[in-house]
Amino acid sequence: MAQSVVIVGAGITGSLLAWRLAKRGCAVTILEGRHVGAGSSSRTAAGIRQQFSTPATVRGMRFSVDFYRRFPQLVGGADVPIVQNGYLFLYDREESWGAAQRRVHMQKAAGLQEVEALPVEELRTLFPWVDPLTVLGASYCPTDGFLHPAVVYTEAISAALRLGATLVQQAPVQGVRKQGDHIQAMITPKGDFAADIFVDATNAWSPRLGRVLQATELPILALKRYLWLLERGPSMSPEALLGLPLTIAPSGAYCRPENADRLLMGWAHDATPEADFSYEDQDRIEPAFSHRTGTETAAFETWATLAEVVPAFAEFPGIVATTSGYYGSTPDHNPFLDYDPLVPNLLRLSGFSGHGAMFGPFTALVGDALVQAGASIPHVEVLGEDIQLAPFAIGRDFSGAEQLVI
Q1: Domain ranges within the chain, ordered by starting residue
Q2: Span 79-114, pLDDT tens digits
Q3: CB–CB of 58/111 below 8 Å?
Q4: How many CB atoms lie within 10 A of CB 237?
Q5: Helix (H, G, I), strand (E, B) or coil at 16
Q6: Residue 121: CA atoms inside 13 Å, Cβ hemisphere, count?
Q7: DSSP symbol at 3
Q8: What pLDDT sits at residue 401?
Q9: Residue 45 pLDDT > 80, yes or no?
Q10: Architecture of domain 4-76+148-219+331-392 in CATH?
């Protein structure tokens, strides 16, 4: 008998898992508190990279990149959601440059053959717009890039519905019916929804959903993150801007083309966790981060630090927009992909720390395997290799922290 599954959250994680489960014949219901893509999936820089610090994640992201390249054939729609401009990490200290070279060696061993460690001489040849006096070297992978998130969740939900899944929007989970430690049904304003297995795909919303479900308290913090759009100037042609890789300065500030005339910029910052933020808070721009409240803000600081390594940016005319959303961050910046210890039929797929869009296909693969098993499993097969799931288990010790967080 096909399993019945209720998924909470209709972003990239929930929509791709719904499609995969429905394709396998499961009876799938997706519950969404607002509307499809209302959360962080629609507010992300949407980078996708295979340059990670652990072999398991490198292999998982190789799978994700391959999946997104073949998205129209696998899921549907006319558009390929991945733009493979590459990822370029820049380094200006001997310590960080040495660590980058060691990571590249590990990444190649994990199957990412196209990644390279570029000494400054090679960097100058490949990327002449980088100021070579400001860096010692870079790591570069040309098959990395960024995504169009709306294509992913819109087409995945549509594909799931074609396969028989049910989508219920404006249906926040308000309570739960349980028998012993198992969930029987989730209670929403649109009715009660019973299933064999329930999935938390709410990311930054996961802690509050966990409280409603009487589940394990996961160490996921909702942290505000900002993005800015910088208008292109004559110092760089539309074609040059459009071809830029997603570039990460030594400071951690990053940028990528939004289109031929605008550069998207971001930079992680210290933030106070917001346990009870609302959907509307996603659009709340604090003055210290707005491009409209003077030049002594994070917006202009980000622009300035990027212009140090790419001097052409200094001649761009100005920032034209500020947007924001929330990361669901964990202590080691790796997600939880595991069953809840207190609620055996609750699967937690949350805490992506800004990596939810790129993890989407891998998360759906792992989620499907976990649904089929009905319990925690040690590994999944990806691209012909076993990937250990211990780095994503609930209750891990957080010692294997992801080092490349932007």
Answers
A1: 4-76+148-219+331-392, 83-143+221-329
A2: 999 999 999 999 999 999 999 999 999 999 999 999
A3: yes
A4: 12
A5: helix
A6: 0
A7: -
A8: 61
A9: yes
A10: 3-Layer(bba) Sandwich (3.50)
Residues 187-219 pLDDT 10s = 999 999 999 999 999 999 999 999 999 999 999
> Longest Cα pair distance anywhere in the chain, in angstroms?
66
Architecture of domain 83-143+221-329: 2-Layer Sandwich (3.30)
Q: Are 201 and 38 in contact (CB under 8 A)?
A: no
**End-to-end distance of the chain based on CA atoms, in angstroms?**
44
Three-state secondary-structure class, residue 234:
coil
Task: Give the tens place of pLDDT for each residue, 313-341.
Answer: 999 999 999 999 999 999 999 999 999 99
Q: Are 86 and 48 in contact (CB under 8 A)?
A: no
Angle between helices 356-373 and 55-69 (to 10 degrees): 100
| Exposed/middle/buried for residue 370 (C-beta within 10 Å: 0-12, 13-18, 19+) | buried
Q: Is the pTM of this model over 0.90?
A: yes
Q: Which two tokens stand for residue 135?
A: 């860096």
Strand 197-200 to 221-231 pairing: unpaired
The CA–CA distances, whole Å, from 116 to 47, 65, 88, 146 equal 18, 17, 10, 19
pLDDT of residue 399: 83
| pLDDT number for residue 406 | 47
